[in-house]
Amino acid sequence: MAEPGGGRPVTVSDVQQLVRRKDEIEAQIKACYELLEGQKGVGMHEPLVDAEGFPRADIDLYQVRTARHNIICLQNDHKALMKQVEEALHKLHAREKEKHAKDEAEALAEAMSQNQSLPQAFAKVNAVTPGSPASVSGLQVDDEIVEFGSVNVNNFQNLQNIATVVQHSEGRPLSVTVIRGGRRVHVGLTPKRWAGKGLLG
């Protein structure tokens, strides 16, 4: 993502620099408004002449005119700068997106090569109740269970095996290994009583 005209790509520090300039301009605008405030609260549009059409004697006309002029110029600069900030952010995000897509493709390729060596799962999670111990531990629907405490593919006969392990481990953390998105994930699950049914949910 090079800049138009073959320049270098936009960096985070470029954006930070633009934001710093924006802050400086905003501070200058504020200072000009404060100056107008100090001149009997003359804003941007109050008349500078009295009822009879003479220049007002109670304010410094030169200062007011200069402040008003500066505010208009600074507001234009501010507008242009905001456009630059927006464009720079767009470019930065587009680059991040590109990088993210590349990283994801690499991670997927890695997962595929790992897939060959993944252990066999013996059960699949088809529901997780929100707020339950299973949900709190980070277990997700479609997780394929490889190990549940002492139960694994070699000694698993039926779901009663898991129920037994759960009952014997109430209040104690169990090590659970699942396959999620082609990767091994370890989850620490503590079976305990909660508002819903069972010790897991």
From TrEMBL:
Protein family according to the UniProt entry: Belongs to the proteasome subunit p27 family.
Primary gene name: Psmd9
Record-linked InterPro entries: Nas2_N (IPR040815), PDZ (IPR001478), PDZ_6 (IPR041489), PDZ_sf (IPR036034), PSMD9 (IPR035269)
GO biological process, one term: proteasome regulatory particle assembly
Protein name: 26S proteasome non-ATPase regulatory subunit 9
Signal sequence, renumbered to the chain: none
Residue ranges of domain PDZ in the record: 90-182
Oligomeric form and interacting partners: Interacts with PSMC3. Part of a transient complex (modulator) containing PSMD9, PSMC6 and PSMC3 formed during the assembly of the 26S proteasome.
One GO CC term, this protein: cytoplasm
Key words, A-Z: Chaperone
Pfam families: Nas2_N, PDZ_6
Main function: Acts as a chaperone during the assembly of the 26S proteasome, specifically of the base subcomplex of the PA700/19S regulatory complex (RC). During the base subcomplex assembly is part of an intermediate PSMD9:PSMC6:PSMC3 module, also known as modulator trimer complex; PSMD9 is released during the further base assembly process.
